[in-house]
Amino acid sequence: AGTHTxxxxxxxxxxxxxxxxxxxxxxxxxxxxxxxxxSTQLPYSWxxxxxxxAGTQTxxxxxxxxxxxxxxxxVLSVNSVxxxxxxxxxxxxxxxxxxxxxxxxxxxxxxINSVGCDSIITLHLIINPIPKVEIQDTFFVIQGQPIQLNNxxxxxxxxxxxxxxxxxxxxxxxxxxxxxxxxKYFLSVSNIYGCNSTTKPIYVKTIKDDVLVNTFSPNGDGxxxxxxxxxxxxxxxxxxxxxxxxxRIVYESRNLLKSWDGNRNGQPLPIGTYYYILEIPGNKNxxxxxTILR
Length: 294
Prior knowledge:
By secondary structure, the protein is an all-beta fold. Helices cover 0% and strands 53% of the residues. Strands 14, 17, 19, 20 and 21 form a five-stranded mixed beta sheet that branches. Strands 22-28-27-23-24 form a five-stranded mixed beta sheet, with no helix packed on it. Strand 27 and strand 28 form a beta hairpin. The model has no long low-confidence stretch (mean pLDDT 92).
């Protein structure tokens, strides 16, 4: 670069001449660049070049701002995406990153790892069923008589009644209870998956058969006019049949809340002793005599 003069030239008229050139020289340029990307961004394009992995590539034949040749070099680093697997089981439901999962399956969650790339966490989840127990809240039974504690259980394998008093077994689904007083129980059910549930209180309430009086006087004086069987109405399905001495049915009913007034088809029965049978589902029948006085 500089000013250069050429003398001894001949111009167009045949005379001496000279020419001066002020010359400016612009430099070629080159650049070096570094870049870090995540593996999910591969292949990566840059200035017409394609990176399929980390490395260094140079692009030649570029023209810089002064119109001269230039080149550019890129040093590319690639960070990896990370992945992890979790295998887990749960009973009924599972909390996964503030989401409640109730179905077995594979679930993904993405966070940013320590090098700024995606970190994919995969959950392989199995939801196991919890036991379900359908059982009535209260059983009624004649004091000292057995009753089976029937229920409907699904997804259960192991059973525990607490307390075990009055039960033939306390580790079966439907034990036989022979109570002499009212008793409260809890039933815990679990399965082979380790899932469990416990029932609300279950009551077995006893009824004394000696609550039955054996005489009544349906004379309309308002005192002991009817034979009361309402204590036994609490045992669903209980019915009564009353017979005369000849074995003929004089009264029968499935509604024990309605007391017997000593009539047969609306007509008063004569003074005397009659025989009854109380048929109690799940219990031993009760039989005896009742006397009408007038």
